[in-house]
Design a protein that fits this description.
The structure is a homodimer.
Chain A lengths: L21 H14 L12 H8 L3 H13 L3 E4 L3 E4 L8 E3 L1 H8 L4 E12 L2 H6 L7 E11 L2 E11 L8 H6 L2 H6 L8 E10 L2 H6 L7 E10 L5 E9 L6 E6 L3
Antiparallel strand pairs in A: 1-2, 4-5, 5-6, 6-9, 7-8, 8-9
The structure holds a DNA duplex.
Chain lengths: ~250, ~250
DNA sequence: AAGTGGTCTAGACCACTAT
DNA sequence: TAGTGGTCTAGACCACTTT
């Protein structure tokens, strides 16, 4: 397996008894051939009809395999021309917040600490962000998220306050945050916009996160919308980038 | 179209004459129904067999539509149970570097300025990162990327130096950067690891990027590997987060 | 046993590209 | 005209869940 196989015509077979479905196996075989250099960037893969014959699968199965490779950024297809190996490029690089979410799934180690929750009057900025009148009441919340007893994320948020829905103090803690992170189905938000920025810890945030003032940190700003497409929550998370790693890979990995 | 349709049984039909394929149309219809609240988070969608009948398409077409919705984070499927509407959660949030890449595609507005390129001896850190001996020669490069004449990204990189491949001065400029960003097939890298961090501009970087010293910025650190899986390049990009926006959306839009 | 999603077949037709 | 990818059919069988 470690030796390079530069002859793509000598191909492995699909194991029909394997648990892994045929399309995934085929995708894996092709990805391996690309990774080994059997097909270089820019080169054309065998036609789908050829792959059907070589691996004894139906066109739909080949199609699914190729689509997988497209999703993985390994190849691209041009109708009427063929399937070509893609070179590495930045467009396909993406970072996701899986680690962020994983943190919250671990309910033993992760605790949400409430710093503040009160109803205040919206200032101009809040009013603009969640599309209400200045002076209208909003719920202002500040939370600290602890992992293993150490503070790792600071969060502050201004939420639309609906007087028709009286709020029990205990409910606040569950609102939004746990629903968003737990991966369960408790969220009442339909969609959101997020923006990632660099920032510098002010004195208060530094103190809360037990960092030095003026340390660099990441700021994840959010606006969430309800099912009527009304913006209902604006706020941001602040966390040290060395604690919440945002790493990813690109290209073809084993 | 603006009125909510809370009865999912009164459904739109697939337009077979449309350019948009049937599976995409079906996915769009279902997504719209979820967005309108006809199916709430946690609720079960009609079975695939039912969808086949309702929309008069084959099982494979329904399957593709459902798979699309899964990719978009709208639903999730549980074998033997059904297809369920997903609630918003952070796990599916991802940021990509499309804007980063777009910048480089625009070759009229974007210029790469070379600050420095010379062959130096690897120090301990570089040696560790690209897996060579301390003291071995590496190509050290510093670049500034201008957009519309204004500096927006600073880049520095240490590359493996292969004495067997003599380097023409002019080639350096094309190396890696243009291949990576242009989206063409010029890259000679097979894969890479990237990490996004917050940082603070030091005096030099601030000066080059025409910012104030100690301004916050994003640092995108990278290691790239060649087709033999050897690490060949280590370095980082530094850019102001307000110039290179890293924004994204989550949930169900339109 | 019945219902659900997951995979797969062996063709078909279409749109696009090259020659 | 021949070859390519893109879509789609009308079933089949399987694994899993619920009743």
């Amino acid at each position: 397996m470690s030796a390079l196989n530069r002859n793509p015509d000598v191909h492995k077979k699909i194991d029909r008894s394997a648990y892994e479905p045929a399309y995934a196996q085929l995708a894996g075989i092709l990805r391996e051939q690309v990774a080994s250099g059997a097909y270089q960037p820019g080169q054309k893969l065998p036609s789908e009809a050829t792959l059907c014959r070589n691996y004894d699968v139906s066109p739909m199965t080949v199609r699914r395999a190729v689509n997988l490779l497209i999703d993985q950024g390994v190849v691209r297809t041009i109708q009427g021309k063929g399937t070509f190996v893609k070179a590495l490029n930045f467009g396909s690089i993406s970072f996701n917040l899986r680690h962020f979410q994983d943190l919250f799934k671990d309910k033993k180690r992760t605790k949400i600490r409430f710093l503040e929750a009160r109803i205040i009057r919206a200032d101009a900025q809040v009013a603009r962000k969640i599309d209400i009148q200045v002076g209208q009441r909003v719920i202002f919340m500040r939370r600290l998220i602890d992992s293993d007893g150490e503070p790792v994320i600071y969060h502050q948020e201004s939420m639309l306050y609906d007087p028709k829905l009286p709020i029990v103090e205990g409910e606040l803690e569950l609102t939004s945050l746990h629903g968003l992170f737990s991966g369960g189905n408790e969220s009442s938000f339909k969609k959101g916009k997020l923006e990632l920025k660099a920032t510098i810890l002010d004195r208060e945030a530094a103190h809360l996160l037990k960092c030095a003032e003026a340390d660099p940190a990441l700021k994840l700003e959010h606006i969430f919308y309800d099912f009527k497409d009304r913006p209902v929550s604006w706020g941001w998370f602040i966390f040290r980038s060395d604690l919440q790693e945002l790493s990813t890979t690109v290209g073809i990995w084993g």
